[in-house]
Structures are given as structure tokens and as C-alpha cells.
Amino acid sequence: MVHNNQIGEGAAIKRIGILAGEKSGDILGAGLINALKEKYPDAEFVGIGGPLMIAAGCQSLAEMDRLSVMGFVEPLGRLPELLRIKKRIETTFIDNPPDVYIGIDSPDFNLRIEKKLRAHGIKTAHYVSPSVWAYRAGRIKGIKESVDLMLTLFPFETAIYEEHGIAVRCVGHPLADNIALEDRQADYRQQLALPPDANVLTLMPGSRGGEIKRLGPVFIGAALEAQQQCPDLRFVIPCAGPEARAQIQNLLKQANVFSANQFHLVDDSHAAIGAADLVVLASGTATLETMLLKRPMVVCYKLAALTYALASRMVKIPFVALPNLLAQRQLVPEYLQSAVQVPVIRDEIVTFFAGRRDQDATLAEFDRLHRLLRKNASVAAADAISTLIEAPRGA
Predict the structure, then answer these.
(1) What tens digit of pLDDT does each residue of 189-242 get?
(2) CA pair distance 38, 41, nearest whole angstrom
(3) Any residues with CB less than 8 A from the CB of 266 and at least 6 apart, and which?
(4) How far apart are CA 131 and CA 265, in angstroms?
(5) For residue 62, which phi and psi values (nearest 5 degrees)?
(6) Cα–Cα distance between 345 and 357 in angstroms, integer?
(7) Same fold, 6-172+375-390 and 185-373
(8) Per-residue model confidence (pLDDT) at position 181
(9) How far apart are CA 282 and CA 123, in angstroms?
(10) What is the pLDDT of residue 71?
(11) Cβ atoms 355, 95 nearer than 8 A
(12) Label partner for 369 (CA 20 to 30 A): which of 36, 72, 94, 174?
């Protein structure tokens, strides 16, 4: 009979701690669990995850949504609950140590747990680099005390860890694995019932209320002014959910747009990007998705004035758009803060649809970067974690 986590001829069943704090981490975590199961079919996964990680076999000790807090103020109101969850996770793993603890993103929460567990001799890995290469570089010392292995999504993130003697591996980005290398614009247009030869502009002012409030009026105003010079333009706006849709509909009414045919509101952001000729969008992960779908873009970034004043003092990078960071040069236009104005964005749209800017070199670079990020991320991450698990402590 099998007892005490033993299988076969005395081989211990692997016990893996894993914690994700938000939806994007749940996606990464589920892929990682499935890849680790290929190596350790009987492994136990315990921690916190969302529906995808739970479906993959993770025993979740708390609801992942309770960790999904953002900004500077909201976490303060939830601090007692967050501290209780943190204590429960730490106690669980100190009392019954896993072979490894994997924190997925959520660095403010996970790195604290990792530091505590590592001090008790538990191996730790962190999946998704905090933005130490962009701001708060001093955190690197704390990271070195907290993690045995850092798994990054992008190649430019590895240098700072190598400089500080932290084991690091770039595993690529799952989006690059999941999005086809070939252009599927025709399929996405058919999906959204758009004519194959239409001039399609997709507007993505963001998914959160504050982003839509700051960027939505500029994007809609620029699109309407551009349409005066390019009458055959069609507009698509993906909506992240019911609240975002209502907010965008209200902005359209304020702009005197009452025809549903003029602005096509859809739920599928992936199809909205893929169907476009040009995408005007907020800076964020959507810029990576747009690059991987081989769509030209104009990137905008606008924060609340006080937040921007604070952030601009801390951030030490030349670009904000991921394609530009990956290329390490200005590959796509990006406009920040006060530069995000209707005439500026309108001129970008008009110039593009008038055919006055050659996109071939940009699209070729998109393809190169896509291939660079295509590393079978979940399997690569599982390989690196397996090596960590099997290595002698301190090796």
C-alpha cells in the first residue's frame, strides 16, 4: 500500500505550492500546472488560484478574487483580510513544506510570502518579473532574499537579475504561443460581420473606468474627425464588460453618435484587434496582443495628473508601449499624457488610411518579436521549476 506521499519504489509525490492573485495569473498558473503534471503526474498543487487553476487540479485555500486589489488606497481597506490570507498560506506551507512555492505575479503579496518561506528552507520561484527594470529598482535586493528562481516573460527583463546574481530564465509569453504566426484578418472580419475590404479602425481606450474616462473622449473625437477626411471608415470598440459598454455608450451619446452602425461595440477584444487595419489603444498587455496579431497601432498612455506626477519621477524607461520596449526603439507611435489630444490622434489615423506610412518594416519586426517570444512558455517554465525542485539545496 502507498502511505505518506510515497509512490512506486519510494519516490515521493511532489507537493507544489502555487499562488495567483488575478485573472492573468490564473491563466499562467493553469498552463504551468498542466505542464508540471507531465513531469509529475501525481503531484499535489495547493495555494490560491482562480477557476482555471482549480480546474487544472489546484486546491485553493482562499478565493482568488479576494487578492485582486489595485492602486494605492483600496489595499489599505482590505489589509486585515489580506494579512489573514498571507498568514494562512505561510502557516500551511511552513507546517507542511512543499517541494517548491511558485508565486505568480502579484509581487507585493507573493514576494513577502516567498521571503518568509525561503527563510524556512523552502525553495521559491516567482513567475512574471516585477517591473524593477522600470521603477523601484531598489526592490531587487528584497527579491534576491525572496526567490531562488525568477521566470520572466520578456528577454529585456533578465539583465537586472543576472547583474545581481539571481537565477533567471526567460520563458516567453503564452500569448505568443497561442496566437498564430499567420495573419487571420479575414477570419476575424467574418466573425464580426465586417466586409473583407472595409477600412476598419479599432479603438481600445482601456478596460477600467478611469482609463475609459481619460482616453475614450479623445479616441472617439479623433475617429469622428478622421471620418470627415476618410468617409468610408468603420469603427470597432471592444468592451471589457457591461460597465465598460455602458460607459462607452454614454461617451458616444455625448459625442452625438446615435447610430449603432457607425461604432460597432463587441465583446471579443481579440477579434476586434485581428479584424482591424489600425488599432488606437491604451498602453498595456493589449499592445502585445496587437503586435502578435500583426496589426499597426498607435499607443496612448494617460494617468490621473497626480498619479502621473508621481510615476514620472520613478519610471526610468524610454518607452511605455511593449512593442517599443521589446524592439528597444520607437517601433510604433506612442503619446503620453498631455500629448494625447484629438488633433494628434486624428492626424495619425488620417495619415495611416491615406497610405502615407509604409508598414512593411514594422510588420516584419512584429513577426521577428513574435518568434522571439514563442518559447512554449508553460513547458519552459515547468522545465525550469523541475530543475529547481531536483537541485540540491544551495546548489
Answers:
(1) 999 999 999 999 999 998 888 889 999 999 999 999 999 999 999 999 999 889
(2) 6
(3) 192, 236, 237, 238, 239, 272
(4) 33
(5) -160, 165
(6) 15
(7) yes
(8) 96
(9) 38
(10) 42
(11) no
(12) 36
Q: Tell me what pLDDT residue 76 has.
A: 57
Give the predicted TM-score (pTM) of the model: 0.86
Strands (E), the chain: 6-7, 11-12, 15-20, 44-48, 58-60, 100-104, 124-127, 149-152, 168-170, 199-204, 233-238, 263-266, 278-282, 297-301, 334-336
Would you call 283 helix, strand, or coil by DSSP? Answer: coil
CATH code of the region 6-172+375-390: 3.40.50.2000
Pairing status of strand 6-7 against strand 11-12: antiparallel
Q: Which three cell numbers stand for residue 64?
A: 482568488
Give the Cα separation of 109 and 69 in Å (integer): 11
Tell me the pairing of strands 100-104 and 297-301.
unpaired
Place of cell 489615423: 349
* pLDDT for residue 305: 62
| Pairing mode of beta strands 149-152, 124-127 | parallel
Which residue stretches of the chain have pLDDT < 50?
Answer: 1-10, 70-74
pLDDT score for 16 = 98
Q: Do residues 235 and 201 lie in contact, with contact meaning Cβ atoms separated by under 8 Å?
A: yes
193-197 contacts at long range (C-beta below 8 A, 24 or more positions apart): 194/234, 194/236, 194/264, 194/275
Q: Are 142 and 345 spatial neighbours (Cβ–Cβ below 8 Å)? A: no
Q: In the chain, where are the structural domains located?
A: 6-172+375-390, 185-373
pLDDT in tens, 331-390: 999 998 889 999 999 999 999 999 877 899 999 999 999 999 999 999 999 999 999 999
For residue 171, give every residue at least 6 positions away whose Cβ sits within 8 Å of its Cβ, in sequence order, or none.
151, 152, 153, 375, 377, 380, 381, 384
Q: What is the DSSP letter of 338?
A: G
